[in-house]
């Protein structure tokens, strides 16, 4: 299908990945709860600009396609304090007065994050123009095949029922459902090797 070609994301793809994810998450329930203002598009761009960087691009794990992107972290899934400090202004621009909620949700998710070795899909998104074309499935197939080859399970947090259904079709199972600080539900999902 058109748009389903998947390639490793290079550092040079950062701008495209930011734009793709900001578009893909424009209607995400959790980010809409965190960013309720009418300026959500700009705030999403600031958030993904702070999130997307050399620590998740350029190692061959994260992937891009013409309409989608997936950020994949190996075992070192936590952002360093140095990274967080370097992007503090971007996080403030993104979340404004909702920053304490964003930090609280992140902390709650980190407490439940698996401790055994795995690959973490922090964000997977398909731009509106690419939905329904198999882009999400192509991205998932690429990263889960590599996880299987490495002998590692794959973990993610599904922020919408529609996304959770897609992940289930690719072998993910729900291990918990959380609503940190009263957020919309997040399904914590794991895929075992060969799942």
Automatic annotation (TrEMBL):
- Occurrences of domain N-acetyltransferase (ranges): 4-191
- InterPro entries of this UniProt entry? Acyl_CoA_acyltransferase, GNAT_dom, Trichothecene_AcTrans
The organism's place on the tree of life at top rank? Bacteria
- Which SUPFAM superfamilies does this one have? Acyl-CoA N-acyltransferases (Nat) (SSF55729)
Pfam families tied to this protein? Acetyltransf_7 (PF13508)
CDD domains given in the database record: NAT_SF
Concerning Gene3D superfamilies, the annotation shows: 3.40.630.30
Among PANTHER family, the record links this protein to: GNAT FAMILY ACETYLTRANSFERASE (PTHR42791), N-ACETYLTRANSFERASE DOMAIN-CONTAINING PROTEIN (PTHR42791:SF1)
What is this protein identified as? Answer: GNAT family N-acetyltransferase
Tell me the classification of the organism that encodes this protein.
Bacteria, Bacillati, Actinomycetota, Actinomycetes, Propionibacteriales
